[in-house]
Design a protein that fits this description.
Layout lengths: L3 E8 L10 H16 L6 E5 L3 H5 L4 H9 L5 E5 L5 H14 L6 E7 L6 H8 L15 H16 L7 H11 L13 H6 L2 E3 L2 E2 L9 E9 L9 E10 L14 H14 L8 E3 L5 H10 L8 H6 L16 H5 L6 H14 L12 E8 L4 E9 L1
Parallel strand pairs: 2-3, 2-4, 9-10
Antiparallel strand pairs: 1-7, 1-8, 4-7, 5-6, 8-11, 10-11
Length: 382
């Protein structure tokens, strides 16, 4: 397999883009990536998206976007893996380039979620869970995470307020990201007084959805002459049961553990070598579970990293350096590509006040469902 690298990146600000269509949002990110790469054409297009058939009434997103951005006759497909769709599309593109089948691939993660009422979007998101044994019983996606969080607090003795540092850190970092949806600092007091959604998850435990797109161009590493060169040193994917109740331990993200273990081995590193981590903080409980599954904290102690300020930009393991899902926003099918774009920005030294000093190795992990599909990527300054 050939060594691959990132040639170009692009993204749009996440928000409620009533004035723009799905194709315009995705196209804006794609054109930005192509301009950054200095390319007018690519050999293949891979689109990450979850909700377009339900929310936007549009399938065939591969051809839909290839037509819009002028990539006629090229290979173009859509990849769906729930909230992990963006990273799944990136992995598919990566394998196409690494295998030698194509010389350049464009990845576009895109989602336009404000075209439907909130209750309809919530119902659409629930399709990432088990239709027979979870959705049919009336459990929402937030409700599933709330059950896990309640059990975690019971098992390990944490209080709700102990999760506040994850949200506080994300919001503080998003203040310096012009593409983030939420530009507002929060405090422990505000976190605790936030409106309850599904006990114990409140509004500030949860990431906001929105409209947005991010894009990346992958090429063989030898074709990148710009410095610094950002190479893909590892790509790994794993799955767990789709229903949380079917797992041996509902409080351990087995797929995250497996995919990160494979990624570490592929890159020839350990968790101690990771300079920063763009984790999938759809809910604050997922941040804690991710830190544990990926080898950064002991079982039941993921919360401790936030309380000890180890996740800040100056901390031992900076996380969500551009706001994470919690404050940058979570346009579900695009999130995995946003994470990777942000890793590239850090390794290029483009993050201003949230720049991680001397960052050389960054990891991004994108989760589909409540830990059912997990994709881990490690990028490295070369």
């Amino acid at each position: 397999m050939r060594k691959t690298a990132i040639l170009g990146i692009g993204q749009t600000k996440i928000g409620e883009h009533w004035e723009k269509s799905l194709r315009e949002i995705g196209g804006d990110a794609a054109f930005a990536a192509m301009q950054d790469a200095g390319l007018e054409k690519v050999d293949a297009l891979f689109v990450g998206n979850m909700l377009s058939p339900i929310v936007n009434g549009q399938n065939q997103l591969g051809t839909f976007f290839s037509d819009w951005i002028g990539l006629w006759k090229q290979e173009a497909v859509k990849i769906e893996a729930a909230c992990g769709s963006g990273a799944a599309a990136f992995r598919a593109a990566l394998m196409a380039v690494a295998s030698g089948d194509v010389e350049s691939a464009l990845v576009v993660g895109v989602e336009k979620m404000t075209d439907k009422a909130g209750r309809d979007v919530t119902a659409s998101l629930a399709t990432a869970a088990d239709a027979d044994y979870e959705i049919e019983q009336g459990v929402s996606f937030v409700g599933i995470n709330a059950l896990v969080m309640r059990r975690y607090m019971h098992e390990f003795g944490w209080k709700h307020e102990d999760f506040a540092p994850f949200s506080i850190n994300a919001h503080a970092n998003a203040m310096h990201n012009p593409y983030a949806r939420l530009h507002e600092k929060i405090s422990i007091d505000k976190f605790e007084k936030s409106s309850m959604i599904s006990t114990p998850i409140n509004l500030l435990d949860a990431s906001p959805t929105g409209d947005g797109a991010a894009a990346i161009i992958i090429v063989p590493a030898e074709k990148v002459v710009r410095q610094p060169r950002i190479v893909v040193s590892a790509s790994a994917a794993s799955t767990d049961t789709i229903a949380v109740h079917s797992r041996k331990d509902p409080m351990f993200l087995q797929a995250a553990y497996t995919s990160s273990k494979r990624a570490y081995e592929m890159a020839g590193i350990t968790p101690n070598d990771i300079d920063f981590f763009e984790l999938h903080d759809a809910f604050s409980i997922m941040a804690a579970l991710s830190l544990e599954a990926n080898g950064f904290a002991e079982r039941g102690q993921g919360v401790r990293l936030g309380l000890d300020n180890e996740i800040s930009i100056q901390g031992r393991l900076p996380v969500c350096t551009r706001g994470g899902l919690k404050a940058r926003g979570h346009p579900v099918g695009a999130t995995g590509v946003y994470q990777l774009v942000e890793v590239v920005q850090q390794l290029r030294g483009e993050c201003g006040k949230t720049q991680v000093e001397s960052a050389k190795i960054g990891m991004a992990q994108n989760i589909g469902g409540s830990g059912a599909t997990v994709l881990t990527h490690i990028l490295q300054y070369d």
